[in-house]
């Protein structure tokens, strides 16, 4: 049986969908986020795509594990009960299952992601 690959192409320049306000903002400005190429592969139970956010601070409230590669921008993520982690273009990060915390986007951030 042939295997099918799920691919995100041209992440730095792919056009994004309509931006929406962060779901759990913390103060002003309220970040605006958008996605592109969101694809789910039910056979492996994962979703991939491109995500971008404008500057702002908001809570991360995802139960999934997530692997992300930062394509552009700069942010700080502070996991609940943990130390702040700065992320910049070229960095990769693995969020464990049930990792909650606060995103502080300093410069518009674009990343590719895998939720699983």
From TrEMBL:
Residues 11-25 have a biased composition (Low complexity). Residues 1-25 are annotated as: Disordered. It comes from the Bacteria. Pfam families: Cupin_3. InterPro entries: UGlyAH_Cupin_dom. Residues 46-113 form the (S)-ureidoglycine aminohydrolase cupin domain. PANTHER family: CYTOPLASMIC PROTEIN, CYTOPLASMIC PROTEIN-RELATED. This is Cupin domain-containing protein.
